[in-house]
């Protein structure tokens, strides 16, 4: 990978993704403006981001950019085409907390996409035997946390020893 992306952004007119990258061979920082073609206010941002990431002309420059970041940039472009301000778009992106999302309400395609993202994060954080900071047997002692309040089923009066 001869290029490392340092920053990403969007231009609204004409719609394009801007990547500031470093050329590893020369050490110079450069800017690449990637036009977003065939994109409208009704476009699927995840598919458009995937198409851009795997485009043969831009693949090397976008290799170190995550698919979720490209999807967010496309969401900003789509919101602009829908007439929303940048502040409104950014507020909507901040409100989307993936930990608060109800996965039971997603379609099969969206659920598969979220699972693929979770798998990618898991693989990135997983420690394997060959890693320098790998520890085979990890022992952790947890401090006792105060209960937030008694619950009726906790104190049913019987002490069965379960």
TrEMBL record:
One GO term describing the cellular component: spindle pole
Subcellular location, principal: cytoplasm
One GO-annotated biological process of the protein: vesicle targeting, trans-Golgi to periciliary membrane compartment
Cytoplasm among keywords: yes
Domain of life: Eukaryota
Compartments, as annotated in UniProt: Cytoplasm, Cytoskeleton, Cilium basal body; Cytoplasm, Cytoskeleton, Microtubule organizing center, Centrosome, Centriole; Cytoplasm, Cytoskeleton, Spindle pole
Keywords from the named record: Cell projection, Cilium, Cilium biogenesis/degradation, Cytoplasm, Cytoskeleton
Similarity-based family: Belongs to the CEP19 family.
PANTHER family for this protein: CENTROSOMAL PROTEIN OF 19 KDA, CENTROSOMAL PROTEIN OF 19K CEP19
Record protein name field: Centrosomal protein of 19 kDa
Organism: Clupea harengus
